[in-house]
Write a structure and sequence with these properties.
52% helix, 10 strands, globular, 252 residues, six-stranded parallel sheet, 9 helices
């Protein structure tokens, strides 16, 4: 009987220990939610990265502002151009009596094309309308190396950085009044671009003359147009001027 009771008590003890072992093991899943909660914390780590990316555009924007300022400088530094010419009306060689001078036609077209101001060299003492009489006066001026006076003056001369300078060829040279103007002005730092009308002599060496008179300037190769073409083929004259200007970087 005692043996039976002992077996019964041993069985009860075993069942009790098994029940305790099951109870102790059941809380183990409880930490799992803790592991799951730490995952969102890891996912939040990119937040500081977004702050860094936001700082990059701020840094990159600074050169853009500097570039914009640099781009505005040429616009603010106004490019001023002046077309100057001497041109005679009245009776002219091969074209008869004209109301607008050959060189004036070319000069006015250049001014329109590049948006320049215009200054016409007007002599204090007008040249005769008669071709033969003008020939006599101009020949005498050349022989005496005269410097005929002109009317008025260019206002704000120092503000112009590009000068187109036009004249007819009179007996193989510029008219002496053109020398008067060139010698009366300081061309240092300016760009000088000659143009002239003629009836077969081209520039007649006046490009080199202007280079020597405009000390300190950059003198670009000039344009020579026949006076007859300027008067009677203005479409052709405009095309020649446009093609010439297109070859220049700042007027292309």
């Amino acid at each position: 009987m005692k043996q039976t009771i002992s077996l019964f008590l041993a069985l009860c003890l075993t069942l009790a220990l098994t029940a305790c072992g099951g109870t102790a093991s059941t809380p183990e899943p409880a930490p799992q939610p803790t592991v799951q909660e730490t995952a969102p914390a890891a996912a939040s780590e990119p937040a500081p990265q977004s702050v860094t990316l936001n700082e990059v555009p701020t840094t990159a924007a600074e050169p853009q502002v500097e570039n914009n300022a640099e781009a505005e400088q040429p616009a603010g530094a106004e490019h001023k151009t002046l077309v100057i010419y001497f041109s005679r009306t009245g009776e002219n060689y091969t074209v008869g009596t004209i109301s607008t001078g050959n060189t004036a036609i070319v000069g006015d077209w250049i001014a329109e094309r590049v948006g320049a101001d215009v200054f016409e060299i007007v002599p204090e003492t007008p040249y005769p309308d008669s071709y033969d009489e003008c020939l006599e006066v101009a020949t005498q001026e050349q022989r005496s190396n005269a410097r005929p006076a002109y009317v008025g003056e260019v206002e704000g001369w120092e503000d112009y950085d590009t000068i187109f300078f036009g004249y007819p060829i009179w007996w193989g040279d510029m008219p002496m009044i053109a020398y008067t103007f060139l010698e009366n002005h300081d061309f240092t730092g300016k760009t000088v671009i000659p143009f002239n009308t003629h009836e077969g002599s081209g520039q007649s060496g006046t490009q080199r003359t202007i280079e020597s008179l405009c000390s300190g300037a950059t003198v670009i190769d000039g344009l020579a147009v026949r006076g007859n073409t300027a008067q009677n083929d203005q479409a052709g004259t405009e095309q020649a001027v446009s093609e010439w200007l297109s070859g220049m970087d700042f007027f292309g």
